[in-house]
């Protein structure tokens, strides 16, 4: 039995038992963040907040959603939208949140790429972040099945078909995934479970892991400067105005957090503007027709955040397309190892990499546009060129970063 | 600060470009554009004669062979089920026909229903012997029309005998009746009888139309307003070969139908309009306070 003194306050009582003072230091008051940052550094907390909103709105929706192929569509479009008080609000928050979470993920990713925040000790931050991207993708896809509209059904059909592996014709595997020859009750029940239990659990674990990978290497800064955190922390803790000005860091809470909260406020104004006045962008019209296995929609396309990889699948022949698609899904994981330059600096100081960054961003934007357009005429040709460019850029990356001048 | 705004500008520009590409631009390329005829039914010649409502009253007696006119106390000779057996569909009550249908369309329609509706198998045979007769009956129907019609009445008349609207509790046989189940067994024989009738009606209707016309509960979310407008105005323009007849709505009729579709398709619109400003106002104040807090924390840092 350990020795315990009588505590004089709740804080002290807790500190004796779970080391709350240490916890506060590690996670807040002595978790040092560089001062030299801009609002893009708030995207992590914006993401965490958006995930929180998705979780809460999802819990409310879960109380009324009915995962049965006969009732799912009406439980979403009638029960929740009409009979449940503010059900429409939770649904629109959930739909808009699902779209915006990907917008912020992409901004967060490209911020990391631009400032080189994935190397020299920060590799695991990048890898765990990419893992979260994959988990969020699975969460989004499984959630998209639940309203059981036309796009749910046909997207489910198309995506599960990919697992037949083209010429491998692993149709048995596809049936095993679906639990049926076509998407039906077993399919819906499974994706319901994935969406409301397994994926959220993994995502929460992934977020904890992602935060964990951040603690020792610390957050990067606008100049990729190597900060002497111990010295800066000492200066900060000295506590004079002079020393704090000289220190290159700030504590996570309250100083960094105050900026995060401000950025979140601006973001929430946009978020709720979309929820109340412009939610249609996040809810495809096709999905307001109930699932019908006998009627294929004229255009089948995924939500916008999957379009770029969908377009890497489409312009090639079946087998080649599948291989290209599979590579595209995981290629971003390799970034810390494909980038051979030791420089941690914003892209604009890195010569050819600067060009690479904007070319990649533009190429993914073009792929995204083409992914939604019908694959006809000029659109499929542009799509093909953009898909090939995507791979050329990845092949070029180790070469241009190898010859990059050391800063 | 300047740098932050510049970065914000770049992020915003890319986001807007992304939005433009996957929403307005993609949709403009995916759907063919159909120009509205502004409900002029320009393919139909203007009437060369003027309709006389008084003369039309006597001539309209012929309509009563199939149609009811409730407001005039004229009942239909057959109920909905018998009509479906005979024609495949229940003929509409004509009380509001003159209110929501285009007069020119209505007159031409009586002369040649199949051609004017662009629906080859249209159940109604040519029913006026001359343009004068047709114009007179159209004028009569206009003269007996009520001053006001509700969106739901208009839907029931123009769409509701083929299209259910389950979120509006509407079936092809009218509103779902309120029935009581037996308290000991939970069996609701009246509801079952209604469902049986409805099923029979729908089977006949599907035979007549080729398929069961879709439920329109949330069609206003599934199709754009422009699509619905041009499709109702002339179904063939958007969906060549469709069995759906052109119904000949006038401006008021179209507005009322669209209003009903909006009501059942987007019932939260009034609640959204009410709550929106409050929620956004809250976050504006939240953001101002957050900014002041941030300024106080960062004041002496540089």
Describe this structure in words.
The complex is a heterodimer of chains A (407) and B (302). Chain A is an all-alpha fold and 407 residues long. Chain A folds into 2 domains: 270 residues, Cytochrome Bc1 Complex, Chain C (Up-down Bundle), CATH 1.20.810; 103 residues. Helix content of chain A is 66%, strand content 1%. Chain A has 17 helices and 2 strands. A two-stranded antiparallel sheet of chain A has the order 1-2. In chain B, α3 runs parallel beside α9, α5 packs across α7 and α8 crosses α13. In chain B, strands 1-2 form a two-stranded antiparallel sheet. Chain B folds into 2 domains: 30 residues; 210 residues, no CATH class. Chain B is 55% helix and 1% strand. The model of chain B has no long low-confidence stretch (mean pLDDT 95). Chain B is elongated. Chain B has 302 residues and is mostly helical. Chains A and B meet through α4, α5, α11, α12 and α16 of A and α1, α10 and α14 of B.
């Amino acid at each position: 039995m350990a020795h315990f003194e009588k505590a004089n306050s709740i804080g002290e009582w807790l500190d004796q038992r779970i080391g709350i003072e240490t916890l506060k230091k590690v996670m807040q008051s002595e978790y040092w963040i560089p001062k030299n940052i801009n609002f893009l550094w708030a995207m992590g907390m914006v993401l965490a907040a958006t995930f929180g909103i998705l979780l809460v709105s999802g819990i409310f929706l879960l109380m009324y959603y009915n995962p049965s192929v006969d009732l799912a569509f009406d439980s979403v479009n009638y029960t929740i939208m009409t009979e449940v008080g503010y059900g429409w609000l939770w649904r629109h928050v959930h739909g808009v949140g699902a779209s915006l979470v990907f917008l912020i993920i992409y901004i967060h990713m490209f911020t990391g790429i631009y400032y080189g925040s994935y190397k020299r000790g920060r590799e695991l931050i990048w890898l765990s972040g990419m893992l979260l991207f994959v988990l969020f993708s699975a969460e989004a896809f499984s959630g998209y099945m639940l309203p059981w509209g036309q796009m749910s059904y046909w997207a489910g059909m198309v995506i599960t078909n990919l697992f037949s592996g083209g010429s491998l014709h692993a149709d048995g595997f596809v049936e095993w995934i679906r639990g049926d020859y076509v998407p039906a009750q077993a399919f819906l029940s499974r994706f319901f479970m994935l969406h409301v239990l397994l994926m959220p659990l993994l995502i929460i674990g992934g977020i904890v892991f992602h935060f964990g990978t951040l603690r020792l290497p610390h957050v990067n800064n606008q100049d990729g400067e190597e900060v002497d955190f111990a010295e800066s922390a000492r200066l900060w803790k000295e506590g004079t105005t002079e020393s704090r000005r000289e220190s290159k860091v700030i504590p996570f809470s309250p100083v960094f957090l105050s900026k995060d909260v401000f950025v979140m406020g601006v973001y929430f104004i946009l978020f709720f503007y979309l929820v109340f006045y412009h939610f249609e962008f996040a809810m495809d019209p096709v999905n307001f027709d109930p699932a019908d296995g006998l009627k294929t929609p004229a255009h089948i396309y995924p939500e916008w955040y999957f379009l770029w990889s969908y377009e890497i699948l489409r312009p090639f022949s079946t087998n080649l397309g599948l291989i290209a698609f599979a590579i595209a899904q995981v290629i971003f994981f390799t970034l810390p190892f494909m980038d051979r330059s030791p420089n941690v600096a914003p892209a604009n100081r890195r010569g050819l990499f600067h060009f690479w960054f904007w070319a990649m961003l533009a190429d993914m934007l073009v792929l995204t546009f083409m992914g939604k357009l019908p694959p006809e005429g000029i659109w499929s040709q542009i799509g093909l060129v953009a898909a090939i460019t995507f791979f050329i850029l990845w092949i070029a990356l180790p070469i241009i970063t190898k010859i990059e001048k050391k800063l | 600060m300047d740098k932050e705004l510049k970065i914000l500008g770049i992020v915003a520009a890319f986001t807007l470009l992304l939005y433009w590409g996957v929403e307005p631009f993609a949709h403009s390329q995916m759907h063919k554009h159909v120009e509205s005829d502004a409900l002029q039914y320009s393919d139909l010649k203007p009437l060369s004669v003027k309709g006389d409502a008084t003369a039309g009253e006597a001539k309209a007696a012929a309509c009563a062979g199939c149609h009811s006119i409730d407001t005039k106390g004229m009942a239909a000779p057959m109920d909905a089920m018998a009509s479906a057996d005979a024609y495949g569909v229940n003929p509409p009550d004509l009380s509001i026909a003159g209110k929501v249908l285009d007069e020119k369309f209505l007159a031409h329609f009586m002369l040649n229903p199949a051609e004017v509706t662009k629906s080859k198998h249209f159940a109604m045979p040519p029913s006026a012997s001359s343009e004068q007769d047709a114009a007179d009956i159209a004028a009569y129907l206009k003269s007996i029309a009520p001053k006001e019609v509700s969106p739901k009445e208009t839907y029931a008349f123009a769409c509701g005998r083929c299209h259910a609207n389950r979120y509006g509790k509407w079936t092809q046989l009218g509103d779902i009746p309120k029935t009581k189940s037996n308290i000991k067994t939970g069996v609701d024989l009246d509801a079952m009888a209604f469902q049986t009738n409805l099923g029979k009606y729908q089977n006949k209707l599907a035979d007549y139309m080729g398929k069961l016309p879709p439920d329109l509960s949330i069609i206003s979310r599934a199709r754009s307003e422009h699509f619905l407008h041009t499709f109702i105005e002339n179904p063939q323009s958007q969906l060549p070969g469709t069995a759906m007849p052109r119904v000949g709505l006038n401006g008021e009729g179209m507005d009322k139908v669209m209003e009903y579709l909006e009501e059942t398709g987007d019932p939260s619109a009034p609640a959204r309009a009410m709550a929106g400003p409050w929620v956004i106002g809250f976050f504006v104040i939240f953001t101002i306070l957050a900014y002041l807090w941030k300024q106080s924390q960062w004041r002496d840092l540089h």
